[in-house]
Amino acid sequence: MSTEFNRDKLKLKSVKDRVSKVDSSLLFRHAGKVNSVEFVRSLPDILAVKDMKKLAHALIEARNMEASRIFMYGGHVIKCGLGPLLVKWIRNGTINCLATNGAGTIHDIEMALFGATSEDVEEGIKDGSFGMWQETGDVYSSAVNNAYNSNLGLGEALGTEIIQREGNTDISPLSAACEAGIPVTVHPALGGDIVHPYPQISWEKLAKAAEKDFDLFGKRITLLTSGVVINAGSAVIMPEVFLKLLTSAINLGNSISGITAASFDMIRQYRPLNNVVFRPTRVLGGDPVILTGHHELMLPLLDVFLEAEEDNNE
Hints:
This protein is of the alpha/beta class.
């Protein structure tokens, strides 16, 4: 029985031969002009509807005040087709900072450059092919090396890589953020992403780029007074990173208050609720917002409420 574990000998396959669950036909599409005001007015003004209105209003107000509008997300947000929606929010100024985990970047890269993502994990486990994709590794390693050589954060390096390879920036939050000149930070858990076993990925270089993003995200958190932070679909990584950076920002003498903090997820989970929503708003003042449901429904619904809020202000 073999007990060898030499990652230099891993056998990578081509994504061109992979069966993926998500392609461009499943992505978010803007419906054009709809009567968002009348739709929102038709809803019962209670519970989640009131919370959605509160969040939409807070985002518009924060934009007017040039406060931070932070969107933290996990890979599922991109995997379920919402990359184009985040691009829309980047371009119209709804959000001015993105922060994600490693999975969020992998699905972004694969959609933007290869037009499909989300493999069949169970089938891949059978023969050891899960996550073993040559093209994904090539893109990621190139970005990591560029980050190291040019002193870039991981998010900027990945977004730049997509642009340079002429990927679809209309569906890629990573590249759209780079084009718009707003921070996009990446916070990987070493060993947790499909690219981490690849021999061409240097953990040393990856960690250096991630550390730069950690500091960049912290700087954006110092501007969170009267701002908004949203966590969508990250159960552990982003809530933990956010809490560490929030307390670090305060420790360094920054006064932060009046936060609107929101959690979007399919179930209510400990860290998003406590680390992002409850603890910061209780201590620093502000409004907690909890919206439970599927991302592919709830986030586009927020977009409708934002359009209604914009129309009401005209």
